[in-house]
Amino acid sequence: MWLNDQKIIPSAIRRYRKALAASTPRHIVIDGLFDQQKLDSICAVLQQEQYWHSQKHSYSALYVDESQWHATPDTERFVQRDLWQGYIAVANHAQSAIALEFLQFLRGTEFMALLSKIFDVQVTDIHVAKPEINTNFFRLGARDFVNQHADDSPGREICLLLYLNKDWSNEQGGELVFMGKDDHSVTIAPLYNRCVLFDPSSEGSEHWVKAVTHGAAAAYRYNVTSWYWSE
Ligand SMILES: O=C(O)CCC(=O)C(=O)O
Ligand SMILES: [Fe+2]
């Protein structure tokens, strides 16, 4: 049981739908959606250092190697963060399986049906060439960043962000910020078991992550990013 049943009863889903319709950008924040014990086990897996791989993107190129990165001016640097390499982790360390299983759950029919209901759109992987590359664990250290961007793309209907940071405090930074409307930006702290769902094509959905502070008690800010597509 990956989901906390209380969070998916019909009255809760009605509330999510209302909140979605009333917000700019179209987004909802659900705290405690997933089973806490399961997430605890996943967090333990993610502490292993050797399965994280640095990823860098500029605004003009999706993947940038070290030499290209050096030649990229700061203003063109878009993302620097670490990606968890699930298949390598599981091949080397069987106890990592729970973390990969969770990513697979997030792409499974049960969870995608829940998202379809909340957003009133049918999301499916039938035309997605490599579904698994749409759902990942990332971590951000104090030198990393996710600068302002939009996640919209034709057919991409829903973005999920899930935070896995126990005892995260305000001084640690790392908030997600949506541009919002008329200078009303929306700031969301990356708290444990907090799930943000948003429509990447809605007004004000451009977003970025505030810097994680140096000397933060926890060195890294962990999250899942998952994208969902319609037919
Ligand atoms: O980590 C976050 O809060 C946002 C990540 C993000 O914007 C992305 O993965 O596209
Ligand atoms: Fe994003």
TrEMBL record:
This is 2OG-Fe(II) oxygenase. Transmembrane segments: none annotated. One of its GO terms (cellular component) is cytoplasm. One of its GO terms (biological process) is regulation of translational termination. It holds the Pfam family 2OG-FeII_Oxy_3. InterPro entries: Oxoglu/Fe-dep_dioxygenase_dom, Pro_4_hyd_alph_FE2OG_OXY, uS12_prolyl_hydroxylase. Gene3D superfamilies: q2cbj1_9rhob like domain. GO terms for molecular function: metal ion binding; peptidyl-proline dioxygenase activity. It comes from Rheinheimera tangshanensis. Keywords: Iron, Metal-binding, Oxidoreductase. Belongs to the iron/ascorbate-dependent oxidoreductase family. Residues 125-230 form the Fe2OG dioxygenase domain.
